[in-house]
Amino acid sequence: MAWNEPGNDKDPWGGRQGNEGPPDLDEVVKNLQRKLSGLFGSRSGGEGSGPGGPVLGGVGIGLVLVLILAIWLASGIYIIEPAERGLVLHFGAFKKVTQPGPNWHIPFPVEQVIKVNVDQISTFRHKAQMLTRDENIVDVELTVQSRIQDAVDYEFQDQNPDKTIQDATETAVRETIGKNKLDFILTEGRSAIAEQIREGIQALLDLYKTGMVVTSVNMQPAKPPEAVKSAFDDAIKAREDKERQENEAQAYANEVVPKARGASARRIADAEAYRDRRIAESEGEANRFDAVLTEYEKAPDVTRQRLYLETVEVVLGKTGKVIMDVEGGNNLTYLPLDRIIGNAGSAQAESAAADAAATQQSPSDASANNRVERPLREDARVRRVR
After folding, report:
1. 276 inside domain
2. How confident is the model at residue 42 (pLDDT cuts 50, 70, 90)?
3. Last residue of a domain, one of 178, 202, 223
């Protein structure tokens, strides 16, 4: 008969149904405990006991223990991501490093795993006032980026690697800025100083075995303190004006120097040409004199007369005066025919031509001609008077 059929006043929990009310909670709990005890065979007697009770109870305990052991062993399975490294600790001591992928270790409390991200980039800013080599104060601001290179050293060699890299940064910055002058820091030396700072930080990190590597150091433009910023701005402006004027002077020099060199080369070439021409003329005159001397030695009178006539022809051909020698008299008559027969137009044309010729003729040529013509004129006069 079912327990809920009419006339059945018992419920499955051992209580009664009807006017007695709901079953007692304590009684329900006791019934459950009694049934579980019968399942594991822990009952020593009573209702439901039999020859197979203890055997079934032992098998149940073994199954539970196996299940617990399997769960405990399965808890040792772990997965390392591609950006991570696993540090296995055996009773708190470092044992090995596991690579990315599924791995297994003896579960807690025998072994445990520390996962370290070796690809994550850490960034921090550093800003401070530094004293330069030439005893000037400058505000320096830079950004340092780093990552973990050796997970073992990062976890076990240094107690606080992040604090160590900050202290190393401050040390390297003070050392580098203190070795350089202010002008170099403010102008073209920013990249070089950033590289020196990176090398200094890395050297200190390697010395303390932090397991970290500095990937980059980005240095912002250095600035003077606010108290002296106006003076620094004036100095920078003066430096820029100096560079601008130097560039303008260099451009002017690049324009003028080639012209001067060309003019110098042209004058040198003209001088060499004049020298060669004068040498050739001198050699020609010397050869002509030697030839005349040879002829003079053969016929002195004839040669002397010919020289006289040629000289007079040269002299009179360059003057506008006419001298008439009256036969039988000793007076020389001077006739200004250029003023009598010449007109203003022809005189001006001849004057212009003479001026142009005088301009083209070098001073040395003019002086040489004057030196040559003066004795010839004097000699001609003397000879004519005689």
Report:
1. no
2. very low
3. 223
Residue closest to 195 by CA, chosen among 137, 133, 142: 142
Do residues 309 and 217 share a domain? no
**Dihedral sign from CA coordinates of 319, 321, 325, 330:** negative
**pLDDT tens for each residue of 141-159:** 999 999 999 888 998 888 8
Residue with tokens 């003729």: 361
Mean pLDDT, range 18-36, rounded to an integer: 62
Q: Which helix (H) or strand (E) element contains residue 275?
A: helix 229-298
- 235 assigned to some structural domain: no
Tell me the C-alpha distance between 11 and 24, whole Å.
12
pLDDT tens column, 299-351: 888 888 888 888 888 887 776 666 666 666 565 555 565 566 555 455 555 66
What confidence category does residue 13 fall into, taking pLDDT thresholds of 50, 70 and 90?
A: very low
**304 shares a domain with 218:** no
Residues in contact with 189: Cβ distance below 8 Å, sequence separation at least 6, in sequence order: 180
Q: How many CB atoms lie within 10 A of CB 219?
A: 23
- Phi–psi pair at 332, nearest 5 degrees: -100, 120
Question: Has residue 1 been placed in a domain?
Answer: no
d(CA 119, CA 26) in angstroms, rounded, equals 59
CATH code for the domain of 144: 3.30.479.30
Tell me how far apart the alpha carbons of residues 254 and 260 are, in angstroms, rounded to a whole number.
10
Nearest to 208 by CA among 247, 256, 150: 150
Could you tell me the residue range of the domain that residue 371 belongs to? Answer: 300-386
Return the DSSP state at 200.
H
**Residue at 206 is within a domain:** yes
Give the residue among 173, 297, 188 at the shortest CA–CA distance from 239: 188
Q: How far, CA to CA in Å, does 127 sit from each of 20, 68, 146, 219?
A: 83, 57, 17, 10
Number of domains in the chain: 2
Nearest partner of 202 among 243, 265, 146, 132, judged by Cα: 146
pLDDT at 227: 74
Examine the fold and report which residue of 201, 223, 245 is the final residue of a domain before the chain moves on: 223
User: CA-to-CA distance for 146 and 118, rounded, in angstroms?
Assistant: 10
Residue 202 near residue 183, CB atoms below 8 Å: no
